[in-house]
Amino acid sequence: MPRGGLPEATLVKVAHREYWERAVSNCGHTDDWNAYYLKKHQNAIMEMSRQVLNSELEILIQNLKQSTRGSQKAVLMHQALKLQGKQASVEEPPTFLPNSPQTPPNDPPTLTMAENHEILLLMLPVTATLLPYRRILEEMRNHHTEEQSQRGRHLSLILTWSVVDWSLFTGLQSTSTSLPTPSINVPLLELVLKDSSNEQIQRAVAIIGNLIAKDIVKTTKPHIQEQLPSSFDTKEHCVNNVGVAFSVISSVLLCSLIPCRGPGSKPSKQLWTKIFQDTFLIGSEDIDTNWEYQPQIPGNSGKDSARSDFAAVVFTTLGQQFPFFIVEFEANGFSIHKDEIVVVAVFEYNKFLATAPYMTEAEVNRTCLHVGLVNETTIQLGLIKALYNEADRTLLYTYHAQNAIFKFHTGNQEVDIINAFKLMVYLKTFICQDGMTLKVLLNREGTKQNMNLLAALPHLPKKAIKSRIRSEFTLEPKRVKYSDPELN
Protein backbone atom coordinates (compact mmCIF):
# COMPACT_ATOMS: atom_id res chain seq x y z
CA MET A 1 0.00 0.00 0.00
CA PRO A 2 1.50 3.41 -0.97
CA ARG A 3 1.88 6.13 1.56
CA GLY A 4 -1.48 7.82 2.13
CA GLY A 5 -3.39 4.84 0.70
CA LEU A 6 -6.35 2.91 2.13
CA PRO A 7 -5.89 0.16 4.75
CA GLU A 8 -5.53 -3.45 3.60
CA ALA A 9 -8.64 -4.52 5.55
CA THR A 10 -10.71 -2.22 3.31
CA LEU A 11 -8.92 -2.91 0.03
CA VAL A 12 -9.74 -6.64 0.17
CA LYS A 13 -13.46 -5.80 0.12
CA VAL A 14 -13.60 -3.64 -3.01
CA ALA A 15 -13.75 -5.01 -6.55
CA HIS A 16 -11.38 -2.44 -8.13
CA ARG A 17 -8.46 -2.63 -5.78
CA GLU A 18 -5.97 -1.30 -8.35
CA TYR A 19 -7.83 2.03 -8.44
CA TRP A 20 -8.12 2.47 -4.68
CA GLU A 21 -4.54 1.34 -4.00
CA ARG A 22 -3.32 4.74 -5.12
CA ALA A 23 -2.71 7.48 -2.61
CA VAL A 24 -5.89 9.12 -1.35
CA SER A 25 -4.75 12.45 -2.80
CA ASN A 26 -4.90 10.91 -6.30
CA CYS A 27 -8.53 9.81 -5.84
CA GLY A 28 -11.60 11.81 -5.01
CA HIS A 29 -13.00 12.89 -8.39
CA THR A 30 -15.77 11.10 -10.29
CA ASP A 31 -14.26 12.17 -13.63
CA ASP A 32 -11.01 10.42 -12.66
CA TRP A 33 -12.96 7.24 -11.82
CA ASN A 34 -14.94 7.36 -15.09
CA ALA A 35 -11.73 7.70 -17.12
CA TYR A 36 -10.26 4.68 -15.30
CA TYR A 37 -13.39 2.51 -15.64
CA LEU A 38 -14.25 3.30 -19.27
CA LYS A 39 -10.64 2.67 -20.29
CA LYS A 40 -10.68 -0.72 -18.59
CA HIS A 41 -14.14 -1.65 -19.94
CA GLN A 42 -14.34 -0.12 -23.37
CA ASN A 43 -17.83 -1.47 -24.11
CA ALA A 44 -19.29 -0.06 -20.92
CA ILE A 45 -21.59 2.96 -20.79
CA MET A 46 -21.45 5.89 -18.37
CA GLU A 47 -24.38 4.55 -16.34
CA MET A 48 -22.45 1.33 -15.66
CA SER A 49 -19.49 3.35 -14.44
CA ARG A 50 -21.71 5.32 -12.07
CA GLN A 51 -23.36 2.23 -10.63
CA VAL A 52 -20.05 0.46 -10.03
CA LEU A 53 -18.59 3.57 -8.38
CA ASN A 54 -21.66 3.91 -6.17
CA SER A 55 -21.22 0.32 -4.92
CA GLU A 56 -17.48 0.85 -4.33
CA LEU A 57 -18.08 4.05 -2.36
CA GLU A 58 -20.73 2.41 -0.18
CA ILE A 59 -18.19 -0.26 0.79
CA LEU A 60 -15.56 2.40 1.60
CA ILE A 61 -17.95 4.51 3.68
CA GLN A 62 -19.08 1.47 5.60
CA ASN A 63 -15.57 0.19 6.38
CA LEU A 64 -13.39 3.30 6.81
CA LYS A 65 -13.22 5.23 10.07
CA GLN A 66 -15.19 8.46 9.78
CA SER A 67 -12.36 10.68 10.95
CA THR A 68 -9.93 9.51 8.27
CA ARG A 69 -9.12 11.39 5.09
CA GLY A 70 -10.12 8.43 2.96
CA SER A 71 -13.58 8.28 4.52
CA GLN A 72 -14.13 12.02 4.04
CA LYS A 73 -13.14 11.79 0.37
CA ALA A 74 -15.43 8.80 -0.16
CA VAL A 75 -18.37 10.74 1.31
CA LEU A 76 -17.64 13.74 -0.92
CA MET A 77 -17.42 11.53 -4.01
CA HIS A 78 -20.68 9.83 -3.05
CA GLN A 79 -22.45 13.18 -2.70
CA ALA A 80 -21.06 14.37 -6.05
CA LEU A 81 -22.16 11.11 -7.70
CA LYS A 82 -25.71 11.51 -6.40
CA LEU A 83 -25.84 15.07 -7.73
CA GLN A 84 -24.59 13.95 -11.16
CA GLY A 85 -27.22 11.19 -11.19
CA LYS A 86 -30.01 13.69 -10.58
CA GLN A 87 -28.73 15.96 -13.34
CA ALA A 88 -28.40 13.05 -15.75
CA SER A 89 -31.98 11.92 -15.10
CA VAL A 90 -33.23 15.43 -16.02
CA GLU A 91 -30.94 16.18 -18.96
CA GLU A 92 -30.61 12.80 -20.69
CA PRO A 93 -33.53 11.77 -22.96
CA PRO A 94 -35.06 8.31 -22.37
CA THR A 95 -33.47 5.45 -24.30
CA PHE A 96 -36.00 3.23 -26.05
CA LEU A 97 -35.58 -0.37 -27.07
CA PRO A 98 -33.66 -0.94 -30.31
CA ASN A 99 -35.79 -0.58 -33.49
CA SER A 100 -38.70 0.83 -31.44
CA PRO A 101 -40.21 4.14 -32.60
CA GLN A 102 -40.65 6.88 -30.00
CA THR A 103 -44.10 6.49 -28.50
CA PRO A 104 -46.64 9.28 -28.94
CA PRO A 105 -47.99 10.71 -25.66
CA ASN A 106 -51.43 9.09 -26.03
CA ASP A 107 -50.12 5.59 -26.80
CA PRO A 108 -49.27 2.98 -24.13
CA PRO A 109 -45.71 3.62 -22.88
CA THR A 110 -42.90 1.62 -24.45
CA LEU A 111 -40.51 -0.18 -22.12
CA THR A 112 -37.29 1.81 -21.90
CA MET A 113 -33.87 0.26 -21.64
CA ALA A 114 -33.66 1.49 -18.06
CA GLU A 115 -36.76 -0.50 -17.12
CA ASN A 116 -35.74 -3.86 -18.54
CA HIS A 117 -31.97 -3.64 -18.42
CA GLU A 118 -29.97 -4.84 -15.40
CA ILE A 119 -26.24 -4.61 -14.89
CA LEU A 120 -24.63 -7.43 -12.93
CA LEU A 121 -22.60 -5.69 -10.27
CA LEU A 122 -20.73 -8.09 -8.01
CA MET A 123 -18.94 -6.08 -5.36
CA LEU A 124 -17.44 -9.14 -3.71
CA PRO A 125 -13.92 -10.38 -3.05
CA VAL A 126 -15.05 -13.55 -4.86
CA THR A 127 -15.52 -11.68 -8.16
CA ALA A 128 -12.48 -13.27 -9.81
CA THR A 129 -13.50 -16.72 -8.56
CA LEU A 130 -16.89 -16.25 -10.21
CA LEU A 131 -15.54 -15.32 -13.66
CA PRO A 132 -15.87 -18.84 -15.19
CA TYR A 133 -19.39 -19.15 -13.77
CA ARG A 134 -20.40 -15.71 -15.05
CA ARG A 135 -19.13 -16.60 -18.54
CA ILE A 136 -21.34 -19.70 -18.49
CA LEU A 137 -24.34 -17.53 -17.58
CA GLU A 138 -23.54 -15.11 -20.41
CA GLU A 139 -23.50 -18.00 -22.91
CA MET A 140 -26.81 -19.28 -21.51
CA ARG A 141 -28.46 -15.84 -21.73
CA ASN A 142 -27.43 -15.58 -25.39
CA HIS A 143 -28.46 -19.13 -26.28
CA HIS A 144 -30.88 -19.57 -29.17
CA THR A 145 -33.26 -21.88 -27.26
CA GLU A 146 -35.89 -20.41 -24.95
CA GLU A 147 -35.16 -22.93 -22.17
CA GLN A 148 -31.44 -22.13 -21.90
CA SER A 149 -31.90 -18.40 -22.37
CA GLN A 150 -34.53 -18.19 -19.65
CA ARG A 151 -32.50 -20.31 -17.26
CA GLY A 152 -29.53 -18.02 -17.84
CA ARG A 153 -31.65 -14.99 -16.92
CA HIS A 154 -32.98 -16.70 -13.79
CA LEU A 155 -29.50 -17.68 -12.62
CA SER A 156 -28.25 -14.15 -13.35
CA LEU A 157 -31.07 -12.78 -11.21
CA ILE A 158 -30.26 -14.92 -8.17
CA LEU A 159 -26.55 -14.19 -8.67
CA THR A 160 -27.34 -10.60 -7.66
CA TRP A 161 -28.34 -12.19 -4.32
CA SER A 162 -24.94 -13.96 -4.10
CA VAL A 163 -26.44 -17.33 -5.06
CA VAL A 164 -24.83 -19.72 -7.55
CA ASP A 165 -26.21 -22.91 -9.02
CA TRP A 166 -24.25 -25.69 -7.32
CA SER A 167 -23.86 -28.00 -10.33
CA LEU A 168 -22.81 -25.22 -12.75
CA PHE A 169 -20.49 -23.59 -10.22
CA THR A 170 -18.69 -26.78 -9.22
CA GLY A 171 -18.99 -28.67 -12.52
CA LEU A 172 -20.34 -31.67 -10.61
CA GLN A 173 -23.59 -33.45 -11.39
CA SER A 174 -26.23 -33.53 -8.66
CA THR A 175 -26.85 -37.00 -7.26
CA SER A 176 -30.03 -38.24 -5.64
CA THR A 177 -30.09 -38.16 -1.87
CA SER A 178 -29.65 -41.54 -0.18
CA LEU A 179 -32.49 -42.00 2.32
CA PRO A 180 -32.49 -44.23 5.41
CA THR A 181 -34.94 -47.16 5.37
CA PRO A 182 -38.31 -46.18 6.87
CA SER A 183 -38.95 -48.07 10.14
CA ILE A 184 -42.18 -48.09 12.11
CA ASN A 185 -44.21 -50.12 14.60
CA VAL A 186 -46.10 -51.95 11.83
CA PRO A 187 -48.45 -54.00 14.11
CA LEU A 188 -49.67 -50.80 15.77
CA LEU A 189 -49.99 -48.98 12.44
CA GLU A 190 -52.01 -51.88 11.00
CA LEU A 191 -54.40 -51.74 13.96
CA VAL A 192 -54.96 -48.04 13.40
CA LEU A 193 -55.50 -48.52 9.65
CA LYS A 194 -57.93 -51.44 10.17
CA ASP A 195 -59.91 -49.34 12.65
CA SER A 196 -60.75 -46.86 9.88
CA SER A 197 -64.14 -47.14 8.21
CA ASN A 198 -62.67 -46.11 4.85
CA GLU A 199 -61.98 -48.99 2.45
CA GLN A 200 -59.03 -47.26 0.77
CA ILE A 201 -57.25 -46.87 4.08
CA GLN A 202 -58.03 -50.46 5.08
CA ARG A 203 -56.47 -51.67 1.79
CA ALA A 204 -53.25 -49.94 2.83
CA VAL A 205 -52.70 -52.76 5.38
CA ALA A 206 -52.01 -55.29 2.61
CA ILE A 207 -49.79 -52.81 0.77
CA ILE A 208 -47.66 -52.20 3.87
CA GLY A 209 -47.37 -55.99 4.30
CA ASN A 210 -45.92 -56.17 0.78
CA LEU A 211 -43.46 -53.38 1.57
CA ILE A 212 -42.27 -55.29 4.65
CA ALA A 213 -41.80 -58.44 2.54
CA LYS A 214 -39.81 -56.45 -0.04
CA ASP A 215 -37.63 -54.96 2.73
CA ILE A 216 -38.70 -51.45 1.68
CA VAL A 217 -40.06 -50.75 5.18
CA LYS A 218 -38.72 -52.14 8.47
CA THR A 219 -40.89 -53.03 11.45
CA THR A 220 -40.02 -51.98 15.00
CA LYS A 221 -41.51 -52.15 18.48
CA PRO A 222 -42.58 -49.29 20.77
CA HIS A 223 -39.67 -47.21 22.12
CA ILE A 224 -37.38 -49.05 19.70
CA GLN A 225 -34.96 -46.10 19.66
CA GLU A 226 -34.01 -46.99 23.23
CA GLN A 227 -33.69 -50.73 22.53
CA LEU A 228 -31.95 -50.92 19.16
CA PRO A 229 -29.25 -53.60 18.97
CA SER A 230 -25.88 -52.68 17.46
CA SER A 231 -26.84 -54.34 14.17
CA PHE A 232 -29.80 -51.98 13.77
CA ASP A 233 -28.06 -48.71 12.85
CA THR A 234 -30.23 -45.62 13.31
CA LYS A 235 -28.20 -43.89 10.56
CA GLU A 236 -29.60 -46.42 8.08
CA HIS A 237 -33.09 -46.74 9.51
CA CYS A 238 -35.46 -43.89 10.32
CA VAL A 239 -38.08 -44.60 13.01
CA ASN A 240 -41.39 -42.93 12.15
CA ASN A 241 -44.16 -41.92 14.53
CA VAL A 242 -47.29 -44.08 14.00
CA GLY A 243 -49.57 -41.05 14.33
CA VAL A 244 -47.64 -39.12 11.69
CA ALA A 245 -47.51 -42.16 9.39
CA PHE A 246 -51.29 -42.71 9.62
CA SER A 247 -51.97 -39.02 8.96
CA VAL A 248 -49.67 -38.84 5.93
CA ILE A 249 -50.85 -42.14 4.40
CA SER A 250 -54.55 -41.25 4.83
CA SER A 251 -53.95 -37.76 3.41
CA VAL A 252 -52.21 -39.18 0.33
CA LEU A 253 -54.86 -41.85 -0.31
CA LEU A 254 -57.92 -39.68 0.33
CA CYS A 255 -56.83 -36.35 -1.18
CA SER A 256 -59.28 -35.18 -3.84
CA LEU A 257 -58.04 -33.30 -6.91
CA ILE A 258 -61.39 -31.50 -7.21
CA PRO A 259 -61.10 -27.86 -6.08
CA CYS A 260 -62.89 -27.55 -2.76
CA ARG A 261 -63.54 -23.81 -3.04
CA GLY A 262 -64.59 -23.45 -6.63
CA PRO A 263 -62.61 -22.80 -9.83
CA GLY A 264 -59.11 -21.43 -9.26
CA SER A 265 -58.65 -22.89 -5.79
CA LYS A 266 -55.82 -25.31 -5.05
CA PRO A 267 -57.11 -28.76 -4.04
CA SER A 268 -53.60 -30.04 -3.35
CA LYS A 269 -52.98 -27.49 -0.61
CA GLN A 270 -55.13 -29.45 1.83
CA LEU A 271 -52.90 -32.50 1.19
CA TRP A 272 -49.68 -30.64 1.99
CA THR A 273 -51.22 -28.77 4.91
CA LYS A 274 -51.89 -32.05 6.71
CA ILE A 275 -48.50 -33.56 5.85
CA PHE A 276 -46.48 -30.52 6.96
CA GLN A 277 -48.49 -29.78 10.08
CA ASP A 278 -48.35 -33.33 11.44
CA THR A 279 -44.77 -34.12 10.42
CA PHE A 280 -43.30 -31.01 12.03
CA LEU A 281 -45.60 -30.61 15.04
CA ILE A 282 -46.38 -34.13 16.32
CA GLY A 283 -43.75 -35.18 18.84
CA SER A 284 -41.74 -31.95 18.59
CA GLU A 285 -41.86 -28.98 20.95
CA ASP A 286 -38.93 -27.18 19.31
CA ILE A 287 -40.46 -26.57 15.88
CA ASP A 288 -43.43 -24.46 14.81
CA THR A 289 -45.12 -23.84 11.47
CA ASN A 290 -46.05 -20.54 9.88
CA TRP A 291 -48.48 -20.27 6.97
CA GLU A 292 -48.24 -17.23 4.69
CA TYR A 293 -44.79 -16.45 6.07
CA GLN A 294 -43.66 -12.92 5.21
CA PRO A 295 -39.97 -12.03 5.64
CA GLN A 296 -39.03 -8.48 6.56
CA ILE A 297 -37.20 -7.68 3.34
CA PRO A 298 -36.94 -3.89 2.79
CA GLY A 299 -39.58 -2.83 0.30
CA ASN A 300 -41.86 -5.63 1.51
CA SER A 301 -45.66 -5.36 1.57
CA GLY A 302 -45.58 -3.18 -1.54
CA LYS A 303 -45.43 -4.05 -5.21
CA ASP A 304 -42.18 -5.95 -4.61
CA SER A 305 -43.42 -7.91 -1.61
CA ALA A 306 -42.28 -11.46 -0.96
CA ARG A 307 -44.45 -13.99 0.78
CA SER A 308 -43.98 -17.74 1.14
CA ASP A 309 -46.93 -20.10 1.52
CA PHE A 310 -45.37 -22.14 4.33
CA ALA A 311 -42.36 -22.08 6.64
CA ALA A 312 -41.16 -24.38 9.41
CA VAL A 313 -39.42 -22.26 12.03
CA VAL A 314 -37.34 -22.46 15.20
CA PHE A 315 -37.09 -19.79 17.90
CA THR A 316 -34.36 -18.12 19.89
CA THR A 317 -34.68 -17.78 23.67
CA LEU A 318 -35.88 -14.21 23.03
CA GLY A 319 -38.71 -15.42 20.79
CA GLN A 320 -37.23 -14.42 17.43
CA GLN A 321 -38.20 -16.90 14.71
CA PHE A 322 -35.95 -18.25 11.97
CA PRO A 323 -37.27 -20.44 9.13
CA PHE A 324 -35.31 -23.52 8.10
CA PHE A 325 -37.81 -24.87 5.52
CA ILE A 326 -39.68 -22.58 3.11
CA VAL A 327 -42.34 -23.77 0.66
CA GLU A 328 -44.06 -22.10 -2.27
CA PHE A 329 -47.21 -23.51 -3.90
CA GLU A 330 -47.48 -23.17 -7.66
CA ALA A 331 -50.19 -23.47 -10.27
CA ASN A 332 -48.41 -23.46 -13.61
CA GLY A 333 -45.17 -25.36 -13.18
CA PHE A 334 -42.04 -25.38 -11.07
CA SER A 335 -40.48 -22.46 -12.97
CA ILE A 336 -43.00 -20.02 -11.50
CA HIS A 337 -41.82 -18.36 -8.25
CA LYS A 338 -38.54 -20.28 -8.13
CA ASP A 339 -36.50 -17.07 -8.01
CA GLU A 340 -38.63 -15.60 -5.26
CA ILE A 341 -38.27 -18.56 -2.91
CA VAL A 342 -34.47 -18.53 -3.29
CA VAL A 343 -34.42 -14.82 -2.47
CA VAL A 344 -36.51 -15.31 0.67
CA ALA A 345 -34.29 -18.20 1.81
CA VAL A 346 -31.05 -16.26 1.24
CA PHE A 347 -32.41 -13.21 3.06
CA GLU A 348 -33.28 -15.40 6.06
CA TYR A 349 -29.94 -17.24 5.83
CA ASN A 350 -28.03 -13.94 5.92
CA LYS A 351 -30.10 -12.85 8.93
CA PHE A 352 -29.33 -16.11 10.74
CA LEU A 353 -25.57 -15.84 10.15
CA ALA A 354 -25.62 -12.22 11.34
CA THR A 355 -27.52 -13.15 14.52
CA ALA A 356 -26.00 -16.41 15.80
CA PRO A 357 -23.16 -16.26 18.35
CA TYR A 358 -19.60 -17.01 17.23
CA MET A 359 -19.45 -19.75 14.57
CA THR A 360 -16.37 -21.33 13.07
CA GLU A 361 -15.88 -21.81 9.32
CA ALA A 362 -16.76 -25.51 9.66
CA GLU A 363 -19.94 -24.73 11.61
CA VAL A 364 -21.09 -22.20 9.01
CA ASN A 365 -20.48 -24.62 6.15
CA ARG A 366 -22.50 -27.35 7.92
CA THR A 367 -25.63 -25.18 8.02
CA CYS A 368 -28.27 -25.07 5.30
CA LEU A 369 -31.82 -23.92 4.57
CA HIS A 370 -34.32 -26.12 2.74
CA VAL A 371 -36.84 -25.00 0.12
CA GLY A 372 -39.79 -26.78 -1.45
CA LEU A 373 -41.71 -26.09 -4.67
CA VAL A 374 -45.16 -27.70 -4.77
CA ASN A 375 -47.07 -28.24 -7.99
CA GLU A 376 -50.37 -30.01 -7.30
CA THR A 377 -49.36 -33.42 -5.86
CA THR A 378 -45.63 -33.20 -6.57
CA ILE A 379 -43.00 -31.58 -4.39
CA GLN A 380 -39.48 -30.67 -5.51
CA LEU A 381 -37.10 -30.24 -2.58
CA GLY A 382 -33.89 -28.24 -2.76
CA LEU A 383 -31.48 -26.65 -0.35
CA ILE A 384 -29.23 -23.63 -0.04
CA LYS A 385 -25.83 -23.95 1.62
CA ALA A 386 -23.31 -21.35 2.70
CA LEU A 387 -19.83 -21.60 1.19
CA TYR A 388 -17.62 -19.67 3.60
CA ASN A 389 -13.85 -19.19 3.43
CA GLU A 390 -12.53 -17.63 6.63
CA ALA A 391 -9.03 -16.93 5.27
CA ASP A 392 -10.32 -15.07 2.21
CA ARG A 393 -13.31 -13.57 4.05
CA THR A 394 -15.63 -14.67 1.27
CA LEU A 395 -19.11 -16.16 1.46
CA LEU A 396 -21.39 -17.40 -1.30
CA TYR A 397 -24.64 -19.34 -1.23
CA THR A 398 -24.96 -22.47 -3.38
CA TYR A 399 -28.38 -23.61 -4.60
CA HIS A 400 -29.08 -27.34 -5.01
CA ALA A 401 -32.33 -27.11 -6.97
CA GLN A 402 -33.45 -30.75 -7.18
CA ASN A 403 -32.22 -32.58 -4.12
CA ALA A 404 -35.31 -34.84 -4.09
CA ILE A 405 -38.71 -35.10 -5.82
CA PHE A 406 -41.76 -36.92 -4.43
CA LYS A 407 -44.97 -37.56 -6.38
CA PHE A 408 -48.41 -38.66 -5.20
CA HIS A 409 -51.58 -39.68 -7.07
CA THR A 410 -49.44 -41.65 -9.50
CA GLY A 411 -52.26 -44.12 -10.17
CA ASN A 412 -50.48 -46.79 -8.13
CA GLN A 413 -51.35 -46.80 -4.41
CA GLU A 414 -48.27 -48.84 -3.47
CA VAL A 415 -46.02 -46.25 -5.12
CA ASP A 416 -47.96 -43.48 -3.37
CA ILE A 417 -47.43 -45.11 0.05
CA ILE A 418 -43.73 -45.74 -0.66
CA ASN A 419 -43.32 -42.07 -1.56
CA ALA A 420 -45.25 -41.08 1.58
CA PHE A 421 -42.79 -43.04 3.76
CA LYS A 422 -39.81 -41.60 1.86
CA LEU A 423 -41.09 -38.05 2.24
CA MET A 424 -41.56 -38.54 6.00
CA VAL A 425 -37.99 -39.85 6.23
CA TYR A 426 -36.64 -36.89 4.24
CA LEU A 427 -38.52 -34.33 6.33
CA LYS A 428 -37.44 -35.93 9.59
CA THR A 429 -33.89 -37.07 8.78
CA PHE A 430 -32.69 -34.06 6.82
CA ILE A 431 -34.95 -31.05 7.21
CA CYS A 432 -35.89 -31.38 10.91
CA GLN A 433 -32.34 -32.23 11.93
CA ASP A 434 -30.95 -29.25 10.03
CA GLY A 435 -33.56 -27.06 11.68
CA MET A 436 -32.49 -28.28 15.13
CA THR A 437 -28.87 -27.53 14.20
CA LEU A 438 -29.84 -23.89 13.55
CA LYS A 439 -31.73 -23.76 16.86
CA VAL A 440 -28.71 -25.03 18.81
CA LEU A 441 -26.37 -22.52 17.13
CA LEU A 442 -28.79 -19.65 17.76
CA ASN A 443 -29.31 -20.42 21.45
CA ARG A 444 -25.89 -21.39 22.73
CA GLU A 445 -24.30 -19.15 25.34
CA GLY A 446 -22.18 -16.17 24.45
CA THR A 447 -22.70 -12.86 22.72
CA LYS A 448 -19.38 -12.64 20.87
CA GLN A 449 -19.64 -12.99 17.09
CA ASN A 450 -17.20 -13.91 14.34
CA MET A 451 -16.27 -10.49 12.92
CA ASN A 452 -14.63 -12.07 9.87
CA LEU A 453 -17.92 -13.81 9.09
CA LEU A 454 -19.90 -10.60 9.52
CA ALA A 455 -17.52 -8.80 7.16
CA ALA A 456 -17.92 -11.59 4.56
CA LEU A 457 -21.74 -11.57 4.55
CA PRO A 458 -23.00 -10.48 1.11
CA HIS A 459 -24.60 -7.07 0.63
CA LEU A 460 -28.02 -8.22 -0.57
CA PRO A 461 -30.40 -6.12 -2.68
CA LYS A 462 -32.85 -4.03 -0.70
CA LYS A 463 -35.97 -5.02 -2.62
CA ALA A 464 -37.77 -8.34 -2.91
CA ILE A 465 -38.31 -9.94 -6.32
CA LYS A 466 -41.76 -9.87 -7.86
CA SER A 467 -43.30 -13.13 -9.02
CA ARG A 468 -42.92 -13.32 -12.76
CA ILE A 469 -45.77 -13.67 -15.24
CA ARG A 470 -47.52 -17.04 -15.12
CA SER A 471 -46.37 -18.35 -18.47
CA GLU A 472 -43.86 -20.97 -19.49
CA PHE A 473 -41.48 -18.39 -20.96
CA THR A 474 -41.23 -14.70 -20.17
CA LEU A 475 -42.69 -12.59 -22.97
CA GLU A 476 -40.12 -10.70 -25.06
CA PRO A 477 -41.15 -7.15 -23.95
CA LYS A 478 -41.01 -8.24 -20.30
CA ARG A 479 -37.58 -9.88 -20.40
CA VAL A 480 -34.75 -8.31 -18.44
CA LYS A 481 -31.51 -7.93 -20.34
CA TYR A 482 -28.47 -8.56 -18.13
CA SER A 483 -25.05 -7.08 -18.82
CA ASP A 484 -21.86 -8.10 -17.10
CA PRO A 485 -19.35 -5.31 -17.86
CA GLU A 486 -16.52 -7.09 -16.06
CA LEU A 487 -16.49 -9.76 -18.80
CA ASN A 488 -15.77 -7.26 -21.57
Describe the model.
The chain has 488 residues and is α/β, with parallel strands linked by helices. It has helices spanning 8-11, 17-20, 30-40, 46-63, 69-91, 131-141, 146-159, 166-170, 186-194, 199-213, 242-254, 268-281, 338-355, 361-366, 413-443, 451-456, and strands at residues 117-119, 163-165, 181-184, 218-219, 237-239, 288-293, 308-315, 321-330, 368-375, 378-389, 394-407, 481-483. A seven-stranded mixed sheet has the order 2-11-10-9-8-7-6, with helices on both faces. A three-stranded parallel sheet has the order 4-3-5. The protein has a two-stranded parallel sheet with strand order 1-12. Strand 9 (368-375) and strand 10 form a beta hairpin. Helix 6 packs antiparallel against helix 7. The longest helix is centred in the last third of the chain and has 31 residues, at 413-443. It is elongated and about 85 Å long. The model is unreliable at 88-114, 224-234, 260-265 and 300-304 (pLDDT under 50).
Describe the SSE topology.
Layout: H1 8-11, H2 17-20, H3 30-40, H4 46-63, H5 69-91, E1 117-119, H6 131-141, H7 146-159, E2 163-165, H8 166-170, E3 181-184, H9 186-194, H10 199-213, E4 218-219, E5 237-239, H11 242-254, H12 268-281, E6 288-293, E7 308-315, E8 321-330, H13 338-355, H14 361-366, E9 368-375, E10 378-389, E11 394-407, H15 413-443, H16 451-456, E12 481-483
Parallel strand pairs: 1-12, 2-11, 3-4, 3-5, 8-9
Antiparallel strand pairs: 6-7, 7-8, 9-10, 10-11
